[in-house]
Design brief:
Layout lengths: L1 E6 L6 H11 L11 E9 L2 E10 L2 E9 L2 H18 L1 H7 L8 H7 L20 E2 L1 H11 L3 E6 L5 E6 L5 E5 L6
Parallel strand pairs: 1-2, 5-6
Antiparallel strand pairs: 2-3, 3-4, 6-7, 7-8
């Protein structure tokens, strides 16, 4: 794998870069040598944060982990990525059989014996999607005590989602309204 390691408002020392490459090397069994792995390190208050992003032909495998130290966050990120790869191996193989980033041979070796948790929808909820502006949707979300809120944008008539960000701000997800 090829690594792009950067720091947000920090300098990444050579020893840490080597440790990141060593730890993420555990994932070599899933990916080819051409796979690009983007690693971004940052700190926020007392937390060390590591973001790992691996683009695979139209999809992205990503994790963000926090820890007391960068090494703890790194260990957690590698474990989480490994679980994601095993858990979703069938979909990754069928959807990306031609993807040069994946080592399909390894996925076929682990076969059905690996723990397959699958995706299980445990609850379905119907909502009415009312036309409103994003600010009104944020207010509704706060009144309900939710972390996100789905609404129809009054100005575009598209379905949008507002959500609470980790920095206590708000985010807006807009759809383009077009079908592929």
């Amino acid at each position: 794998m090829k690594y792009i390691i950067s720091g947000k408002n920090m300098t990444v020392k050579e020893g840490l870069k080597e440790r990141i490459e060593e730890k993420l090397g555990k994932l070599d069994k899933f990916f080819s040598e051409e796979t690009i792995v983007q690693v971004t390190l940052s700190t926020e208050k007392r937390d060390s944060i590591i973001e790992v992003t691996i683009p695979i032909r139209g999809s992205v495998i990503r994790t963000e982990e926090r820890g007391e130290t960068m090494y703890i966050a790194l260990d957690n990120a590698v474990d989480k990525l490994e679980r994601q790869m095993v858990k979703h191996r069938k979909k990754l193989i069928s959807g990306h059989r031609q993807a040069k980033e994946l080592r399909i041979d390894y996925f076929e070796q682990i076969g059905e014996d690996a723990a397959e948790e699958g995706i299980s929808i445990e609850r379905t909820k119907k909502i009415s999607v009312k036309p409103m502006d994003p600010e009104e949707a944020c207010m509704q979300m706060d009144l309900l005590g939710h972390d996100f809120y789905v609404f129809r944008n009054r100005y575009t008539n598209d379905i949008n989602v507002v959500y609470k960000r980790k920095n206590f701000g708000y985010g807006l997800i807009e759809t383009d309204g077009e079908e592929e």
